[in-house]
Design a protein that fits this description.
By secondary structure, the protein is of the alpha+beta class. The protein has a single domain, classed as Nucleoside Triphosphate Pyrophosphohydrolase. The chain has helices spanning about 50-60, 130-135, 140-155, and strands at about 5-10, 15-25, 35, 40, 70-80, 85-90, 105-110, 115-120, 120-130.
Length: about 160
């Protein structure tokens, strides 16, 4: 089973917003709905904690460290593929979404060409309202927004 961990930053300005990142590479270019992600990535359980992996992946994808704030586990969410993603939330009120310096990955492009090309893991990051995030995030991450909204409602 594939396991991943991620960080979902939120801020209250005046309504809640979350930090989401548009996936990089040629497949996602020009797409918006379902083409965004919460910064996250795979890890091997036992090699590092889920929270450590979430911090590592945040920095690898966005090119900057996650803010030094307390984090709470939001839950583990299963994708239809069987992948499981553990999400952590943190108050990102003072965090500015980066505009450059994103991590990169290599991909054979064009397909079956034998040539490798580098692409950014994400090509932009921005704050979005919860409703916008639900529309723009990949399907498997949308339940995390619902749980965050419930927690924020319960805390107010």
């Amino acid at each position: 089973m594939i396991t991943s961990a991620g960080i979902l930053l939120y801020r209250l300005t005046p309504g809640p917003e979350v930090l989401i990142a548009h996936m990089g590479g040629p497949y996602w270019s020009g797409k918006d709905a379902g083409a965004w992600s919460i910064p996250k990535g795979e890890f091997v359980e036992g090699d590092e904690t889920a929270l450590d992996a979430a911090h590592r992946e945040f920095e690898e994808e966005l090119g900057v460290a996650a803010p030094d704030v307390p984090y709470a586990e939001l839950g583990t969410f299963a994708y239809s593929s069987g992948k499981r993603v553990t999400m952590f939330i943190g108050d990102g009120a003072r965090f500015e979404a980066p505009t450059e310096g994103f991590g990169e990955f290599e991909l054979e492009w064009p397909p079956r060409s034998g040539r490798k090309a580098s692409f950014p893991e994400v090509d932009r990051a921005e704050w979005a309202s919860l409703d916008d995030a639900r529309e723009r995030l990949v399907k498997g991450q949308r339940p995390a927004i619902d749980v965050l909204e419930e927690r924020l409602r319960a805390a107010s």
